[in-house]
Design goal:
The protein is mainly alpha-helical. 59% of the residues lie in helices and 0% in strands. It has nine helices and no strands. Helix 3 runs parallel beside helix 6 and helix 4 crosses helix 5. The protein is globular, with a radius of gyration of 27 Å. It starts with 38 loop residues before the first helix and ends in a 10-residue tail after the last helix.
């Protein structure tokens, strides 16, 4: 007897190529920071860098003679100017524009109280942004400048003061505008914010501080080559140039990194 062999029909498979999983492209949501819609904001926006850089320029002779003492004395006026700039010119965190409630006919004595309340609502976030700058941004900046070659076992006060000045220039306005929004700080850490006056100052201060390290090892024997004078000076100069570049040359553009 011959064994019968049964052949089952083969199943056919589709020849369509496998589909790729949907890509998760990160789409930034930030927009350039706009000034408050007031004449005071527009005026002080231009006066602020002149005041800040003039103060640093006038303090430069004392800075070369005693860096630690001078940087300490500069902290209060620099911090005050930065707070004033935030209050007068920048929108508060989570508020794209200045929120103005419909005006009702005020009672006698109520108008002045309301105005003081509006000012206080801006001053408190500016103070909180400054505290975040001192408590979070300053230690982080100190670690970064040490990783970039700052003395680790000596010049501790110099490092801390240098980092504090850089943090005030780079991060204090960002804390005021963005608060602790994780999405916005993701764009800050990835350097993908759109250019404007504030972000331009941040980038300019970082690049200026990095360029300021170049004269230190040169054999010129100048007083201003002492650590960290050139770093702080480069940060202030870069901050001023970056503000101008972000406001007038690259506004709305983003830094692109080629893969």
């Amino acid at each position: 007897m011959s064994a019968a062999t049964t052949i089952s029909p083969s199943t056919t498979t589709s020849s369509s190529p496998p589909q790729d999983p949907p890509s998760r492209t990160w789409i930034p949501t930030s927009t350039p920071i706009t000034l408050l819609p007031t004449s005071t904001a527009r005026l002080y926006h231009h006066i602020h860098p002149i005041l800040l850089l003039s103060l640093f320029y006038l303090s430069f002779p004392a800075l070369t003679a005693n860096p630690v003492s001078t940087l300490c004395k500069l902290l209060l006026p620099i911090t005050s100017l930065q707070i004033l700039y935030c209050v007068l010119c920048l929108p508060i965190a989570k508020a794209g524009v200045l929120r103005v409630k419909p005006k009702a006919r005020p009672k006698p004595g109520v108008k002045k109280t309301r105005e003081l309340g509006i000012v206080w609502e801006k001053v408190v976030p500016a103070i909180l942004a400054t505290l975040l700058t001192f408590s979070l941004a300053t230690p982080l900046t100190t670690i970064i400048i040490i990783l970039f070659g700052a003395p680790l076992t000596t010049h501790l006060a110099h490092n801390l003061l240098c980092a504090t000045h850089m943090a005030l220039l780079m991060f204090q306005p960002l804390f005021y505008v963005y608060g602790v929004d994780a999405v916005m700080w993701k764009e800050v850490c990835s350097a993908f914010l759109p250019w404007d006056g504030v972000w331009g100052g941040t980038v300019g201060a970082a690049v200026g501080a990095w360029c300021g390290a170049a004269p230190i090892p040169l054999d010129w024997d100048r007083d201003w080559q002492k650590w960290p004078i050139t770093i702080v000076t480069g940060a202030y100069i870069g901050w001023g140039i970056g503000r101008l570049a972000g406001e007038f040359l690259f506004k709305g553009m983003r830094i692109q990194f080629d893969s």
